[in-house]
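### Sample
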Amino acid sequence: MTDILKSGGTTPAARPRRPAGPLKRIAGFLLSIALTFLGLLLVTFLIGRVVPIDPVLAAVGDRANAETYERMRIEMGLNLPLWQQFIRYVGDVLQGDFGTSVLTSQPVLDDVRRAFPATLELATAAIIIGVAVGVPAGVFAAVHRGRWPDHLVRVLGLVGYSVPVFWLGLVGLLLFYAKLDWAPGPGRLDVFYDGLVDPVTGVITVDALLAGETEIFWNALSHLILPASILGYFSIAYISRMTRSFMLDQLRQEYITTARVKGMSETRVIWRHALGNIAVPLITVVALSYANLLEGSVLTETVFAWPGLGLYITNSLLNADMNAVLGGTLVVGAVFIGLNMLSDLLYRLLDPRAKK
C-alpha cells in the first residue's frame, strides 16, 4: 500500500467507475418495469381479497344454494391458499384473462377495450388544453414575478388544486348546459347520432372524420369541450406551477443576463432560450399530468355520463363486480407506469447530463 502511494498510483477502489453499458441499462430498465408491474399486481390482488364483497356471491346471486356456491368458489380458485391464488392471478393476467364481468357478462378485457378509447379521448383533449394554457401562464407568471399577473396565475392554480372535480363538473353543467345552453348535455354524442359511425379506433371524433361525417364530428367535439375543459383545468394548475418554478430558476442564470446585455430581444430571451432550456423537465411534468388525467377522470366521467373506463369502474363497483373493478384499475395502473417510464426514458435521451 505504501509503495503504491509513493509511486503516485491508485488503489482499485479509487479508480473512477465506468458507466454502465447500454445492455446493462436496458436490462435494468426492463427489470424496474417488471418489478413495478408485479407490485401493481400484488396491490390489486390484495384489494380484491380485503374488500367486504364476496365475489362468489356476486357471480351466483344471493339465491343460489350451498352446492352451487361451493362449486363456483372452487372454480374461481378461492379454496386455494392465498399465495397460490396470487400465482394463478398473475398467470391469468399475463395471458390477458381479467375474468368475466358480472355486470355485462363479457370478458373484462373486451369491456376495457371498448371503454378505454373514450377515456383516452377525454384525457388527450384535457392535456392539450393544459399544455396550451398552462405553459404560457407559467411563463407569464415567472416573467411578472411578484406582480398581479403572477398572483392571478397562482390563485387560479390554488383553486385548481382545492376545488373537487365533481363539484366543478356539476357547476359547469348547471351554468353552461342548464342555464346558458352553451354546451350540450352529458354523453359523447346526441342520442340520434349514436351508432351511426363504425368504431374503428373507438375515439368518436377520429372515427367521424374517417367516415367523412363532419356533422357527427362537430357534435362529438361540442360534447367533448366542457368535460375536457373541466378536467384540463386541474392539469393547467399543475403545469403552470411547475413551468413558473422552472422559468424562475432559468431567469436567474448568467446566460440570460448575458443575452440581455448583448441586446437580444426580451421575447427571444424568454421564449427561445429560457423556455427551451426547461423543455426537457417539462416533458416529465406533462407526461405525469397526462397519466394523472387518465387515472383521475373517474369523477368527471361519472358527472358527464362519459362512457369511459372511469364510468365503467364506478358502475362495476356499485354492482359489486370486482373482476371489472380490478381489471380496470390494473389497466389504468399499467398505463400510468408506462407513461412514467416513457417520460424517464425521454428525459434520459434528451438531457445529455442524464446519460452520464
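The radius of gyration is 26 Å. This sample (Peptide ABC transporter permease) is used throughout the tutorial notebook.
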